[in-house]
Amino acid sequence: MAAPGADRLAARWAPRPGAGTLRPAGYPRTMENTPRPVLVVDFGAQYAQLIARRVRELQLYSEIVPHSASVSELLARDPVAIILSGGPASVYAADAPGVDPALFGTDVPVFGICYGFQAMARALGGTVAQTGRREFGGTPLLVDAPGAVLADLPAEQSVWMSHNDAVTAAPDGFAVTARSAGAPVAAFEDTARRLAGVQFHPEVAHTPHGQDVLRRFLYDVAGLTPNWTTGSVIDDQVAAIRAQVGDAAVLCALSGGVDSAVAAALVHEAVGDQLTCVFVDHGLLRAGEAEQVERDYVAATGIKLKVVDAAETFLSQLAGVTDPEQKRKIIGREFIRTFEAAAREVAAVEGVQFLVQGTLYPDVVESGGGTGTANIKSHHNVGGLPDDLAFTLVEPLRTLFKDEVRAIGAELGLPTEMVQRHPFPGPGLAIRIIGAVTPERLTMLRAADLIAREELTAAGLDGAIWQFPVVLLADVRSVGVQGDGRTYGHPVVLRPVVSEDAMTADWAKLPYDVLARISTRITNEVPEVNRVTLDITSKPPGTIEWE
Ligand code: GLN
């Protein structure tokens, strides 16, 4: 039987067609000019990306690699340390992904987490078995002899566990430092060889001292010193962009979102006026967003910006359309058409060879790597540019997580509202108006949406919410009473959600008083709206957006 999750893993790491020509498929470094990495070997963990993020929070550069990487492939990345992640398999199952014992003779410090800990134990001659006491969730950890990794941490602490199997005997030379009811060996270390591991998950927030554990291993046992700060990332990326682009002209489509704004700002930092940005205002943005790009962003960066006001075209194409897929198609098509025309104009003047895209590291991991440069013919972010406009991509964010992108944006002095912005769909408010899109309805929704955003910000809750669509049920009417008179207005739906990655989401339990303020203000200040409702559906089954 194949190890559980093997298919999903294989799919995740399958090389993209055409990618990886410079290095073995699936294992390219994400970008030149990055520091030596702490490699996270992914055994199909729920949390591989989270581990890499935690390492980066310790100011150490980290990359994720598939467990199928051989020792020599790992060493080819020149790692300063290696972390073996958790995973769904049992180490003693027939085709469980293993760890080559040769890894432990390379002098690279190695830390094992959960499955990685068990695999390490087994590879070095320890034993792993089912103790009959599985542990899931918060679990008391008893520290018998703290050693280096658990030094100065409470003798009894809660850790997050998720395991069926346990290490029952540590390999020779390892000190057992802690246990739990279901894990007789819950942590071990051999500091002379700079090897250690834990059965619990230090990377999750439910393990209160988890970050201390990682810090002690990486700083104290492995002896690493920070090499990854916002400033160093900017310097490294600026150098890499200059090396890639030379003195050629570069184009970037700004969406108003965080990623394209920060990507463009980095490129501008590197090559200044060689960059031209194009902003297509489709008239479906929220209150203040077009101004943020046209005025505040340009003022903050000095970027050369071409604004295409295409609101009228988009609205006339959308007239009378109620079907969500139709709306999305029309907007996608018009966007490409408009951007293409602008790109041609800019290219004719500037001789553009490069196109900036805000691809993030999670996209790179999910698609199995990438070489950093690819000649695009069909490209999903900008979409459908014709063959005679083939640019080479510049992707300065492809080593970065979203929170790092935000930190860099702040450091580059971008407007806070832009840097902290929640994700917003490309088709904009058109898919938050249930019914046909008209200028009047856009005005109504903009007003209601602004109130919700203002109150969320005033309550200090922006960071707690992933996304907060406000939806206008434009084809629904509802009876109300306002000023002793009957009204017949429209309902709006509040759809605040929490999420890690938008793949799944839950409705956000906003405080009642915040919801009450939003409701009162919307019905008072937006004359056509006389009812405010709250969407309490998780995803699945409901998507975050209504259309
Ligand atoms: N599959 C292993 C177990 O159940 C490891 C689990 C994990 O890595 N979370 O013990």
From TrEMBL:
InterPro entries given for it?
Class_I_gatase-like (IPR029062), GATASE (IPR017926), GMP_synth_C (IPR001674), GMP_synth_GATase (IPR004739), GMP_synthase (IPR022955), GMPS_ATP_PPase_dom (IPR025777), Rossmann-like_a/b/a_fold (IPR014729)
Question: What Gene3D superfamilies does the annotation carry?
Answer: 3.30.300.10, 3.40.50.880, HUPs
State the top-level EC class.
ligase
Where does the chain bind ATP?
Answer: S255, G256, G257, V258, D259, S260, A261
Subunit notes for this chain? Homodimer.
Query: Which PANTHER family does the record associate with it?
Result: GMP SYNTHASE [GLUTAMINE-HYDROLYZING], GMP SYNTHASE-RELATED
Name the chain's protein: GMP synthase [glutamine-hydrolyzing]
| Organism encoding this protein | Actinocatenispora sera
